[in-house]
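Repro case for the chain-ordering regression, as requested:
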Amino acid sequence: MKLHSGKFSWLDTMPYLPEYPALQQNISCDCLIIGGGVGGALCAYLLAESGINAALIEKGAVATDSTLANTGLMQFSNDKTLVSMINTFGEEPGVHFYKMCREAVSKLVKLSRNLHSEEAHFISRNSLYFASSEEDLYPLREEYEALRRYNFPVEWWEKNEISARFSFQKPGAIYNYGDAEGNPFAFAHGLVEAAASKGVSVYENTEATGFEFQKNGVLCRAGKHKIKAKHVIFAVGYESKQFHKERGSYLTSSYVTVTEPIDHFDDWFERCLIWETARPYLYMRTTPDNRIMIGGLDESLPGGKLDEARYLHQGQMLLQMLHQFFPGKRQLKAEYAWGAVFGQSRDGLPFIGTHPSYPNCYFLEGDGGNGSVYSMIASEMLTDVLQGKDRPDMEWFSPTRTSRPAPAPNRRRP
Ligand SMILES: Cc1cc2nc3c(=O)[nH]c(=O)nc-3n(C[C@H](O)[C@H](O)[C@H](O)COP(=O)(O)OP(=O)(O)OC[C@H]3O[C@@H](n4cnc5c(N)ncnc54)[C@H](O)[C@@H]3O)c2cc1C
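-- result from build under test --
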């Protein structure tokens, strides 16, 4: 399935791109990771750190699927609000999940700092989450109260406090501290490079084409060659829908425009991440080379497929919207724009864990706008499990959970 089309800004940010050979022989390992996006890259890095003998195969080139389309906002607030999480799952699980996300953002920033290339480093940023309309003001205020009650670092800003800091007016907003922004493409490359240097065997242009599930492991076919592994992690992104058919998620399309560099951000407080209460939402960030990245306008996939030319139209719409937010800026040009398939789970949680049809295997699927944050949570969980540590909270994210009510996540045992 084609997952994106357009011109991607991240491709022009790296001075060199590491390359890896295709698999040329049969191999064996303790854990085979299938997929070289940010999810697989995080697993490779953490497994290498914990001394597990791992291999990673990627059917194309590292980080060139959804990770290339990812706009790199790392936030602890989710598409599904804390209030809504609590309403759906109960107070303790809802708050626990938000705390996991907050920790995951901090870990992503910390971990990125260990990577060799500067492009891979995340920058701490705060987020403005504004009410898109007067009707959204009350629920947003409720969300703020809930976040405050559980000690999340947030402030409430009235209309005049927003207009004093930005060139636009909004009825009210939550200002979150402790989020981050980064370059997911460089980050995934940095992780894979570091994992390879710690002993993970990495193969590009190597597709997993078949599986034999055995008592003590899995035999994975990759073209003419075989990989024998005790465990397999499927980190194949939205393509996991090809492997198992649960209906807990759905695919849409989403669009991004990146402007030419601009000369100042005086009308943009702290160059924070910006998003809104409307669904689908618009979001904006700035980049280290002083561009604005604006995304949103999500819509259904006509005929289940990405319309590969649609990003040209949607990109222009995004640019017009950007000018409504920042009317003082000169007419900006779009230097990059893309459209991409975007996966969302129905209950707002990622999918992490086992599947009865795939013994000795784990799935990692970071559906939703915080896919990279979920990948951090998932890769840490899977590394723990593969080291024999108990992670009862993984059950909450089960890929098969649509067929039964989700159990509450137990707190992680020390
Ligand atoms: C427009 C857009 C903006 C986004 N913005 C954000 C954001 O700001 N913040 C955020 O946290 N998330 C964001 N996301 C979500 C995020 O991009 C995804 O959740 C994340 O990239 C998924 O990473 P992944 O590694 O799971 O998947 P991918 O990056 O798609 O990687 C999966 C890899 O598996 C490989 N593969 C598939 N099948 C096989 C096979 N059989 N054999 C070998 N290899 C295989 C593919 O080639 C691919 O490289 C955004 C998504 C989109 C579409």
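Ordering looks correct now. The CA atoms of residues 27 and 227 lie 5 Å apart.
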